[in-house]
Amino acid sequence: MRSLMLPAALLSLTLAACSQTAAPTGTPSARDYAARPELQDPDSQAILARYGNDPGLLATLREAYGETPRILTLPAAPTISGQDLSSDRLAYVKRTGWGTVGNYNGQYAAYNGTSLPYPGLDWTRDGCSAPDGLGLGYREDFRPACNVHDFAYRNLKVYQRTDANRKTSDEAFHTNMKAICNAKSWYKQPACYSAAYAYYQAVRIGGSDSF
Questions:
Q1: How far is CA 210 from the centre of its chain?
Q2: Measured between alpha carbons, how far is 199 from 100 in angstroms, rounded to an integer?
Q3: Do 40 and 191 contact (CB within 8 A), yes or no?
Q4: Residue 208: which of 162, 173, 174, 172 has the closest Cα?
Q5: Is the peptide bond before 117 cis (omega within 30 degrees of 0)?
Q6: Which pLDDT belongs to residue 44?
Q7: Which domains does the chain have, with CATH numbers?
Q8: First-to-last CA distance in the chain?
């Protein structure tokens, strides 16, 4: 069979075309998200207008839409050694204040109003405050996460008041709110995630006075 020889210039163009890959699609902007049907409620529109192309908000919305993996890992907390009251109490505070809503609820039910499992723990809580009027419809949804956050703040400011502990408490708060959002229908999750970010930003910016 007669072989076919491509001219050198044509061969180079052919190889170049074969080696090209499709350009990656651009990351959605706040304007793109604001046009999506799941985010047409007044709360979501106000949050998108307030934070615009804030990288944290955009990352949160990418999680909500499944465009990136959802990050629901809570911070690591120290183990309770059973050897020293002060260190064990601090470890307990972190494990409870940085843990899941379910774990906190169990501890609260067992120990609120007692001196157990350690003396000097503050179990008081006052629910959620909506950040500058944003996300008003989510105060009750997020109340369980706010309760955990209250426990972390009110005890860590007594037993180990550091900026790092406040930041970790806020990150656990954000994760617990996202876990609450995940229990909603897929259509309601993006709006819930945007509200969770607004609540998270509120404690990051204005929470130092309470810690």
A1: 20
A2: 17
A3: no
A4: 162
A5: yes
A6: 95
A7: 85-210 (1.20.90.10)
A8: 83
